[in-house]
Design a protein that fits this description.
The structure is a homodimer of 340-residue chains.
Chain A: H1 3-10, H2 14-22, H3 29-42, H4 48-55, E1 60-65, H5 71-84, E2 90-95, H6 101-114, E3 119-123, H7 130-138, E4 142-145, E5 155-159, H8 161-174, E6 180-184, H9 190-205, E7 215-217, H10 222-233, E8 241-244, H11 247-259, E9 269-274, E10 290-293, H12 296-311, E11 320-323, E12 326-328
Parallel strand pairs in A: 1-2, 1-3, 3-4, 4-5, 5-11, 6-7, 6-8, 8-9, 9-10
Antiparallel strand pairs in A: 10-12
Chain A binds a DNA duplex (30 and 30 nucleotides) through residues 2-4, 12-16, 18-19, 22, 24-28, 31, 46-47, 49-56.
Amino acid sequence: MKLKDFAKHVGLSPTTVSRALSGYPEVSEVTRARVTEEAARLGYRPNVNAVRLKTGRAGAIGVVMGRAGEFHFAEFMAGMAERLVAEETDILVIPMSDPDQDDEMELYRRLVESRRVDAIIVHSPKPSDPRISLLHELGMPFLVHGRSDIDVPHAWLDIDNEGAIRRATSHLIDLGHRRIAMINGRPGATYAIHRDNGFRGALQSGGIEPDPQLQASGNFTDELGFRFARSFLEQPNPPTAIVAGSMMTALGVYRAARSLGLQVGRDVSVIAHDDVFPYLTADNMAPSLSATRSSMRAAGTRCADLVIQLLAGRSLTEIHELWPVELILRESTGAAPSPR
Amino acid sequence: MKLKDFAKHVGLSPTTVSRALSGYPEVSEVTRARVTEEAARLGYRPNVNAVRLKTGRAGAIGVVMGRAGEFHFAEFMAGMAERLVAEETDILVIPMSDPDQDDEMELYRRLVESRRVDAIIVHSPKPSDPRISLLHELGMPFLVHGRSDIDVPHAWLDIDNEGAIRRATSHLIDLGHRRIAMINGRPGATYAIHRDNGFRGALQSGGIEPDPQLQASGNFTDELGFRFARSFLEQPNPPTAIVAGSMMTALGVYRAARSLGLQVGRDVSVIAHDDVFPYLTADNMAPSLSATRSSMRAAGTRCADLVIQLLAGRSLTEIHELWPVELILRESTGAAPSPR
DNA sequence: TTTAGATTTGAAAACGGTTTGGCTGTTTTG
DNA sequence: CAAAACAGCCAAACCGTTTTCAAATCTAAA
């Protein structure tokens, strides 16, 4: 059923029908009611491709999916979905073919030129991220999930990584820990830098000299959590506390501790960042894991919301949100063991 | 830059340009070469919405994302993306608003009517899944990831869940285990039934009476893995082996065993199904986890491939793939402890 | 040298909507 | 009471392609 046929059915012109359904004011309420009702009854739905062609709107917002198969990704998207289900907006997942830099720029460029999306969400930006300048140049609306120092106006939402890790580290110091290790995310991304700042800041406040031997970074995997924690704990002067970047990392850290006969929460304290997953919760780990917590899903929902506002014309420069992060203390943190 | 302008630039009619770029045979190779080259140079790309309107193709395949925030989902999509990046095809993620049944049907119906996707991938079907009959009725091409007994012709790809669990269970029986527990996925889905069949089949072959007290099912979370394993192991006559449905479940099972002072691989054997995640590997668990293994990512890639073939006109009835599942033995399985 | 046949090309008609501008009546205003 | 403002509706142009049908050109056969 197309507009023309449907219009004939209700005895109106296509113009009026279109306006009635799109909520334009030039049509009387009684007519609008009749039209919407008939549309539902006869099952008329405007052809989405025609609408998109005519209006120039794509009806979708794009998310570029990295190669790494991040487990965070699904949660973020689930969150976005929660908000977008109400809107007539889809989520378009764009696969990243190559980790190559030039190639990634080319991907974004093609995505913009193809006009398949109305906006793009950029994840894990770097302090000066070329994607941001590119999108700005190309005039494509976008929202950055994370932060960047780049000198280009842009909307963003981020969590307070620095504050979170600072508080976590400070708390460990308060518990008497002096040798504290940190497993960060892949170097380069702003969030990793912020976390590093928080870590170093707390150490400095506590009068502790940071030890490069106690810092490592890499993908958020169980594997790396284990390897790094092992290497820390096997040093001559091992740390008594470890700050881990993710739940998966924490799993590896726990495993490393166990493998060395150390008890988490007594021999070695652990705090990790928890993005809140339905399938793996900090509270359920043994011992339960102290964590800095911020819901990835909620971030997805809010990002979707902000993108919608952005597209509705809200000013770029107003859209900056910095979320606080909770620190939840559980059993994995305890007083530093007295040196033997 | 639109077609008209571009055509003027190359000194040809829009018709010829369109044909040249779409690979039609009626245009001479020398012209085609010139056109493609110029298109690249001037950066001309057909407006995707116009193409879609005209051709009726949506250029996207849809995946409905459940509420549960499955961690498998991201891997599957990453796999799809790997294949689809070459095609001019997007992945459209459709959020499921409500776990309500009627509502889900309505969602599919609207999705089809909106013509936003050329095909749909249906996950975790039930033996008689109403989504399948609906899509068939509506004439929307679709591929089922999983299996269904429904009497409607449809393309599918599935892994041999029954065989996998049968082998896993048989192996445990060969090791001398007689009390074997099983943690299955959410009841209802065909895969859960198949796994159950494999489990019961193996027990029967081994002359073992299945004990309802040793069977449980639910979402694949660490939490449930723990709870179920605890309840099994605390029974008066506890199992000496547990078959777990997923990696997350296995994490919970390990935790339960540890919490009871049992050593996995000696006091209690564990086999789980591993969908192969980059961030959590069976080999790295402690002790390393014996697993039935099948790559979710590979399944995603292949499903995308099959959908493309389906859309290219390959017959429904030819597209049935049943993938074998590896059984990889590691340290978490050992001979049944001799009764004390 | 025609002529039929095969290649290439182009003009114009879709595809299914939205939106501009104009056209009626009807109500308000000076 | 005439002029102006307004409400409600419609015809037609347009969005940027693909594709049908016809025409032009070239090649090979008669």
